[in-house]
Amino acid sequence: MNKLLDKLRGRNADLKQRILGLCLQGDQAIADISKELGASIPTATKLVSELIEDGFLVDMGKQHGTSGGRRPSFYGLNPEAGPIVGVEVGRESISLVIIDFKGQVLARRENIRFRLESTPESFRSLTDVIRAQVRTLGFSLSDVLACGITLSGRVNAASGFSFTYFISEGRPLTDLLSERLGVPVFIENDSRAMAYGEYLGSRLQSEKNVLFFNVSWGLGMGMIIDGKLHYGKSGFSGEIGHIPFLSNDIVCQCGKVGCLETGASGCAAHRILLERLQEGRGSVLDKPFRTKGDFTLDEVIAAVLDEDVLAIEVMEEIGATLGKAIAGTINIFNPDLVILGGRLSEVGDYLTLPVKTAISKHSLNMVSKDTRLLVSRLGRSAGPIGACLLSRSRMLGLL
Fold first, then answer.
1. Is residue 391 within 8 Å of 358, Cβ to Cβ?
2. What strands lie across the sheet with 210-215, from one edge to the other?
3. Cβ(15)–Cβ(45) under 8 Å?
4. Alpha-helical regions (H) of the chain
5. Which are the contacts of 35, defined by CB distance < 8 A and separation ≥ 6?
6. What is the largest CA-CA distance in the chain?
7. Residue among 279, 246, 277 nearest 261 (CA)
8. Contact yes or no for 186/157 (Cβ under 8 A)
């Protein structure tokens, strides 16, 4: 464990963690900290002073308060406390972001070539790639406070186990990763990390109930309920892609039939396009299909943005199916905000317009009229930024 974090284990650790939790939401004045803690001004002042001395907080100077009068001093997270690494692991590549302790992005790399397989070789390759990329970006792992890694599928963040990739017998995956990298490691489901990254990284805290749909190769959902990331009883909530939603007799990646993911995801778009090309339909995707026998999800997205008629037609089908399912979740949760993220969200209106049409058709107006639909503001950085921010919260004992 980093020496900086050892300082949080001493006296008044709980109160100090609560102060840091407040500062995650923005800079704070002593009076506000005192009120939130239910502690006296002298006590709050003493605790803040100790956090400054230990390197967690800095004096941000005097700013305008909420009640007028003399300008109070505000205190915020110390960006120099140490860097945090976030890694999103995809099927064929990884993306990596490094933030400072205050949450500002210091460096990022996207589309780093890597093939995800549930094998010891793939595990070793992942840690080697992370180590090399951190060094290439000009940082040393010995200075890193924590590393967050996201994976698709069933991930229990609390226990540190993955039940889809790198399954280890008896030992948490987080322990194995920490040993290889030499820093505290936290793992998270990719959709939940994206939801958290969007929620904190885009400063959306005014919306307390947010549903984030990760429409990538698969389909997942992250939920912010009453301002907190929702995990469910066993830590596996959000598997909306595996609701038995369709009567298509198509076997899903999970082994079951008719899952929503088989009609509303990147793999669904890929399958439908392959079928249409085999039927003789014309498309710009015909060239890679004829030369390689296949095409990538990036090529599908590029075809849509290039206004390829067939690709747009398929995206509208995907959007209509997804929108109908989202309408159901809106009827259940009545959220403030629905966010579309993941790879397919990059096609913009080609996906969002049929989604909006289906929501309007299938949701209850009294329930959905106050729900906004947005496309992810962080884009492909949502996952690794979310991994960074979740790791920061977990190492501080706030989650």
1. no
2. 228-229, 219-225, 210-215, 337-341, 372-375
3. no
4. 3-6, 13-24, 30-37, 41-54, 120-136, 173-181, 190-201, 266-278, 286-292, 297-305, 309-333, 349-362, 365-368, 382-395
5. none
6. 77
7. 246
8. yes
Interior/surface letters 343-381, b for 16+ CB within 10 angstroms, e for the rest: bbbbbeebbbebbeebbeebbeeeebeebebbebebebb
Question: Which has the closest alpha carbon to 374: 333, 329, 349, 340?
Answer: 340
Contact (Cβ atoms closer than 8 angstroms) between residue 343 and residue 266: yes
Q: Residue 57 belongs to what H/E stretch?
A: strand 57-62
**Residue pLDDT, tens place only, 234-259:** 888 999 999 999 999 899 988 899 99
- Considering the entire predicted model, what is its pTM? 0.90
Q: What is the DSSP string of 60-118?
A: EEE---SS-SSPPEEEEE-GGG--EEEEEE-SSEEEEEEE-TTS-EEEEEEEEE----S
**Among 351, 145, 155, residue whose Cα is nearest residue 238:** 155
Angle 185-186-188 (CA atoms, 0-180°, nearest 5)?
145
Give the model confidence (pLDDT) of 39-65 as tens digits: 999 999 999 999 999 999 999 988 765
> Which domains are seen in the chain, by residue range?
3-78 (1.10.10.10), 82-195+383-395 (3.30.420.40), 205-376 (3.30.420.40)
| SS3 (DSSP) at 59 | strand
Q: Determine the Cα–Cα distance for residues 73 and 44; give it in Å rounded to an integer.
A: 13
